[in-house]
Amino acid sequence: MADGFDKIQKLPDPVPGCPNFRRVPGFKVYCCGQPTIAGFENVLNKVCGDTYPKDGPIIWFNLRQEPNVYVNGDPICARPPNKIGEYAELGAITRDIQKANEEEFLKVCEMRKTENGGKLKAVDINKKELEIEVKELKSLSQVIEGVKEKFPGLVHWRVPICNSAAPLAGDFDIICKTLVGTAINTPVIINDQVGLSRATTGCVVACLFKEFQISASFEGLVETVPGINASLLKTDRYVMNPEKDTLFRGEFEVVKTLVSTLKDGAAAKNECDKVIDKNGTPKTGGTGIKQLRENIAESKLSYEIMDDAAQAFLKMKIMDNIHKYYYLILFTAYMREAADLAREAVADEKKGELTLAGGRCAIPGDQLKLSKKFVQFVDENPKLRDLVETGKGNLQWERDIPQAALSNLENLAATDFKANLGKIIHDIYQTAHLMFSDMPQGDHKKRAKYRFASKTLMRILPQPLSKEIEAKIEQKAITLDLYEILGACTWGQA
């Protein structure tokens, strides 16, 4: 599948050959989609600018699960037929598996080019067939080796992660291990196909590592500066707009339990939320496309208007995104603990060199070490790992009908269902009008009210009739649709 497509660029000020490139405000962390060969050089030139040396260290993480080759300088990926134009959730893909898949993909492309007279067949995200005359064919690894000729300090590392759920604990550790030993001003670039969810997740992780470096390195230094109120620089004092809906603030039940269980849990959530907002859209202070926390709330609002099949998919996606948000807060807590341990772990012979006049240590960022891995941190807290698995679905998936309205409908149905049917439908819609009054007028609201009416009618059907309608739905003779249910109730047919 061709990576590029019409309207892939969602942001202003595009960098040629690199979709949705942007810098996270306040951090030397950059996010983008899969570049073309020319796009790699354009991005690196922009990142270096006039001040950062082109031979200096630059870290680039590729978070894609799907392997890439470059045909005439443009990226093409290998995907299963059922994942064309879909989120590429490909299972337990490791770096080694992805590297091997890339080598195999290159061989297959070479073979098909030869068999097809120098041409390759592919599809775009809309499954439209393409035929490309191949003038140049390279693997991603070969492209990176070429880029390193001009940027010899570039480190390109694959950390394949899924789209919706959290990266594995080991994936967090791979990112940290790669960043340990780098300076605070070392540029970090992270890409997926478009520069959306996976890349944004990786950028949040990278920014939290930078926060660790800042906290462990500069706390002692800041405290020696006269007139500086160090408390103002604490990132855990971040406060979101209290007028936001609780879901938009990330106050899910499982997250609230995590925050109350963790040491300094509220501070960890505050710091994580600040970084997520910086990586989000302009309305939360970012420059990006995807707001990882608020996207959960937006998806939850969409849930009410979907049909059953779409609801099943969206419910899984919402739970996966809560799982990701939960682990980002947990990782923040790990990084905060790591900053404290890093300051304490300085060898005695080094303390003299790093101790400032006030007696506090100021450790250069590239000398900071992590005393334990995130995997160990998670293993030390198995109850927290189990908590998210059981609690990520703890949401109110349907709006509660007021008890008085439900009792009225049940009474009408029990008294004389067919005689009261007109009144029942009227009262169901009157209740729906009140329950969904917070939604703006339009098709979404109409659909939400219609689905509510369909489900509520099924809920209050008299027992013999209820069993008959349920059997018809199970046999696929009718669907859970208000008019079909009414037809089956009144005329015995949909």
Description:
The chain is α/β, with parallel strands linked by helices and 494 residues long. Helices cover 48% and strands 8% of the residues. The chain is built from 17 helices and 10 strands. The protein has helices spanning 37-48, 95-115, 140-147, 169-179, 197-222, 253-261, 265-278, 294-303, 308-344, 348-354, 374-379, 382-391, 403-416, 421-435, 443-460, 463-474, 482-490, and strands at 22-23, 29-32, 58-62, 68-71, 74-77, 119-123, 129-133, 137-139, 154-158, 188-191. The chain has a 5-stranded mixed β-sheet. A hairpin with a 2-residue loop joins β4 and β5 (74-77). α6 crosses α7 and α7 crosses α9 (308-344). The longest helix has 37 residues, at 308-344. Residues 220-233 have low confidence and may be disordered.
What would you report as the Rg, rounded to the nearest angstrom?
27 Å
Number of strands: 10
Mean residue pLDDT: 88
Tally of alpha and pi helices: 17
What is the oligomer described by this structure? single chain
Main sheet specs: 5 strands, mixed
Order of strands side by side in the largest beta sheet? 1-2-10-3-9
| SS-based class | alpha/beta
Assign an overall shape: globular
Q: What is the H/E string?
A: EEHEEEHEEEHEHEHHHHHHHHHHHHH
Low-confidence stretches: 220-233
Beta-strand proportion: 5-15%
Helix content: 40-55%
Give the end-to-end Cα distance, rounded to a whole number of Å: 43 Å
Helix-strand blueprint:
Layout: E1 22-23, E2 29-32, H1 37-48, E3 58-62, E4 68-71, E5 74-77, H2 95-115, E6 119-123, E7 129-133, E8 137-139, H3 140-147, E9 154-158, H4 169-179, E10 188-191, H5 197-222, H6 253-261, H7 265-278, H8 294-303, H9 308-344, H10 348-354, H11 374-379, H12 382-391, H13 403-416, H14 421-435, H15 443-460, H16 463-474, H17 482-490
Parallel strand pairs: 2-10, 3-9, 3-10
Antiparallel strand pairs: 1-2, 4-5, 4-8, 6-7
Helix pairs in contact: 4-5, 5-9, 6-7, 6-9, 6-12, 7-9, 8-9, 13-14, 14-15
